[in-house]
Structure formats: C-alpha cells, structure tokens
Amino acid sequence: MAIGKAEFKPNQLDHLLFEAFPGLVIRKDLTQEIRGTSKAPSYVIEFMLGKYCANLFDDNEVREGLRLVNGEIARYIPRGDETEMVKAAIREHAPHRLIDLVQVELNEKLRAGVYWASLRTANIQNVNISPEIVKKHQRLLLAGVWCKLVLIYDDDIQYNKRTYPFVIQRLDPIQISHVDLDEYLAGRALFTRDQWIDVLVRTMGYEPKHPRMTQRIKLLYLVRMIPLVENNYHLIELGPRQTGKSFCFTEFSPYGSLLAGGSITVPKLFVSNTNPPQPGLVTHADVVGFDEIAGSSFNADDDKNLYKSYMENGSVNRGTIPVNGDAGFVFNGNIEFDPRNGMLAEHLFKPLPASISDDTAFHDRWAAYLPGWELPKLTPEMFTRHVGFILDYTSELFHRELRRINNYGTLWEQWFEAPVNQWSARDQRSINRTFSGLTKLIFPAGVMEKEDARLLLELAMELRLRVLVQLHIMSSQEFRTTELSYIDKDTGETNVVRIIGEGEGNSEAF
C-alpha cells in the first residue's frame, strides 16, 4: 500500500509518545512499507527512517523521508544478484559506500593470521578488514553486524600468490550512539500502565487495539522480550507458525541471534578450539534463539551437559577453557495442535528432538514455557499503523541500561510471600527472573502498585508452573508439583495458580 494513499489517523497515545520522546519514535506503518523491499531487518530500516521522518504528523515530510530512505536502500543495500556490479563499482569508483551485514572470521592458515570479512547481502567473500576494526567491534566475529561501509580496491594485496583486492576502509555499525536511562524513565512516568503496555506492543509492530489483543495476549508478547532485558533468561515457546516467534531475534535487536538446524554448534555457542580460542555467541549476544528446534540434533551427551551447565550457572568449561556469558536461550518450535483441545503428544516437550524431549534435567532449567498456541496468527490488520519506539533505540536501551538492573526480581515480596517449602530454588529463581523482566519492561523505574505486582507475579508463576506440570507428567515420582501458591501478606489469604487443561494457563488474574 502506497504511503500517499494510506490513512494515518494519530490518536492521543501517538501524540503523547511523540511529545515525550521526540526523535526516538517512528510510525510503524512506514517500517511495514519498506520491509518487503529490503533484506535489512526492521531495526536497520527504522534507523534510516528516523533520520528523514522526524515530524511524524506532516504527511509531506513523511512522504519525502520515505522517498529518501527508499533511495538509500536502492543505492547502498545491494541485492544478491548484484555481486559482480558491486565488485566492479568498488574497483572503478572507490571509495565505494555500502550498507550490508558484515561477518568476520580469522584465517589462521595465512601469514600471521588474516581477518576476512564477508558481505552477506552483496555476497562478497574474503574482504580485507584490519585487526583494529575487528578489535573495536568484536561482534563482527559472531553472527554479524549491519554496518555502513566504505570500501576500496587494492590489487597489491596478495596471499599465497593470490590477489585479494577488496578492503574495508571504514566501518560504522548502524545503531543509536547514545541512550539515557533517566530520560527514558522521565518519559515513562507520563503514561499509565496500560498505555505503556500498548506502547511496547506497538513498538513490536502490532496493534494493541485489535479485538484479539486482550491484556493476556499483550503480556505474552512482552514475555518474548524478557531475554533482551534479563540476563541468562531461558525460555521455550512452541506454537503454530506465523505468530512472530522469531521476531525478537531477527528484527527487534542486533543483540539477538537466531540459529536454525545445522547451524547450532558448540563452538559457535560457547568457544572454538582455535588458537587463540574464539569466544562464542553466549559471551556477546543478549539472547540466542534456536529456530525450528524440532529439526535440530542434541545427540552428544557432552554437548547436552554443556547446555545444562550453562543454563544453570551462566558458565561452562570446555576442556581447560572457562566461558562465562549473559545470553539467554530461547527454543522456538512449531506445533499445529492446541493443547487446550486435547493433547496429541505425551507431554509438551515431546515435539523437541528425541535426544532431549524426555530429558527432565534439561527442561527443569527453563524459567518459563510460553504457550505459543494462545497467540494469534499474524494477519495484515494486526500490524499497527501507529507510533512506537525506533527499534534501535529500545535495543540499545535494553542492552546498555535495563540489563544492568538486578534488584527487581523480589519487588513482589513487599506484598506477597511464597509458602514454606513449596517452591524449589529453581522455581524461585525462574519466577523472580520473569517478574524482573516484566518489571523492567512495564515499570522500568521499579515503582508499581500491589495489584500490578500481583498481575506480573501470577503470570511468572504460571509460566514456570507449565514447566513443572510437564515434568510431573514425565516423572511423577521426582516432580510432584502441579500447582503453585503465594500468600497475601495483608490478608493472609493463600492464592493458588493452576494450569487448567493440558496447555492453557489460568489463574485468578486472568
């Protein structure tokens, strides 16, 4: 749909967000307008839109900004079939500018070790990049970084009598350079709880006023973002296709990484055996998503033990090499049945690879099981035409500021307490981490009312309980818990959270 014909009707929340965060918000319909024309993820597109579409309510300025962004995409982001044209442009018109996803690897077999960059969209390999640039931007060694590039051509560069003429002269990652937590908190104070939840849902690109967007559905969407604000948060979500499960790893943040199938390897995740060893994704990413997990292999017991150790402690030892990381693991998989209508499997971990599907010790490490079958399949009318944060702003603020906060997990204890001897240490840690993540997202200043805390606590308990119920189905003698309770300190009342049916989470809060 052309932007000139699309109707944008700003509402009160649009104006409030624009006034509270000038220059840090964008009309999300503009992102949708461009996404289909470029391989660049949403956070890159919105970074570019933010430069040219500052006045979101001036349709002429927006249309001109959209024209300029489309021009930059056409000029600087290559298509895969333009490889030879790009090579020729670098040779004939250097310095040549590009925007591309850059990934770097060390070729230790060449003289003194050489770093090679790959331009993933342009499909150009063996591009020279200096150790100084790599040292400054170490994430280039992992899943890659979208960057603005200046390239030159130097046919004097040779290794083993072969010429490698393409050189990255300058590299600037595409990201907002500065975020201020105090400014963010001051802006957040202007919104009610429900308004802020709607802002976050719109930032993800969805329309919170859609009839299917109940409060529960909105909160489940926010749970997907918890690994971006909470260290070592491990989450599993199985559900139907086309519900946006991988969005937070591919579109929302450059600090998320999505692995699929055969790309899941221990060296890539933890540490390589090269000399010197190269740290893996868990040391640099905020969250590692495992997509289509049902098709992956976890056959080696030693590999499984590394996963278990990391999920428990945030660290592993591979040989003599210790690895510490803050990244969370998120397992995504597709199931086309709704457990609320009857189970088609023994338990809700059964669709995972056979080597781990029945491993209770593995699954006891999940902080939460998100019921993906409750989330609606995404249709065009579910995408918002309103204002949300520029994704690069939220990704930087989440990464640099909110992840550093470590004292929100027990805020609920002002009003509530856990029964003696009911919650295990893992239950406590899991519930606290989910509560902390939701608090960082919805109440980033750590200030809330009692009923706000109850809402988040009951959801955190339910998501952990779903794990426990499945463990009980798998081994009832070892795992006896099928409900969790908490006590209201004011009234002394015990509140029970249960799973109703095989997969549907329910408590008095919902």
Structural class: alpha+beta
Taking the sheet with the most strands, its summary is: 5 strands, antiparallel
User: Which fold name is given in CATH as the topology of the largest domain?
Assistant: Rossmann fold
What overall form do the CA principal axes indicate?
Answer: globular
Strand order of the largest sheet: 4-3-2-5-8
Q: Which regions have little confidence, pLDDT < 50, spanning 5+ residues?
A: 1-5, 502-510
Residue fraction in strands: 15-25%
Rounded mean pLDDT is 89
CATH class of the largest domain: Alpha Beta
Tell me the number of helical segments per DSSP (H or I, 4 or more residues long).
Answer: 18
Instruction: Determine the N-to-C terminus distance.
Output: 37 Å
Characterize the structure shown.
With 510 residues, the protein is an alpha+beta fold. It has four domains: 12-76, no CATH class; 80-173; 193-381, P-loop containing nucleotide triphosphate hydrolases (Rossmann fold, 3-Layer(aba) Sandwich), CATH 3.40.50; 396-506, no CATH class. The protein has 18 helices and 20 strands. The protein has helices spanning 12-20, 28-35, 42-52, 59-76, 83-92, 131-136, 181-188, 193-203, 215-223, 226-229, 247-250, 266-269, 301-313, 354-357, 360-363, 391-400, 425-442, 450-474; strands at residues 25-27, 96-107, 114-119, 124-128, 145-153, 158-159, 162-163, 166-173, 235-239, 256-260, 287-291, 315-318, 321-324, 328-334, 368-371, 387-389, 416-417, 483-488, 494-500, 504-506. The strands form six sheets. It has a five-stranded antiparallel sheet. It has a five-stranded parallel sheet with strand order 10-11-14-9-15. The protein has a four-stranded antiparallel sheet with strand order 17-18-19-20, covered by helices on one side. It starts with 11 loop residues before the first helix and ends with a strand. Mean pLDDT is 89; it is low at 1-5 and 502-510.
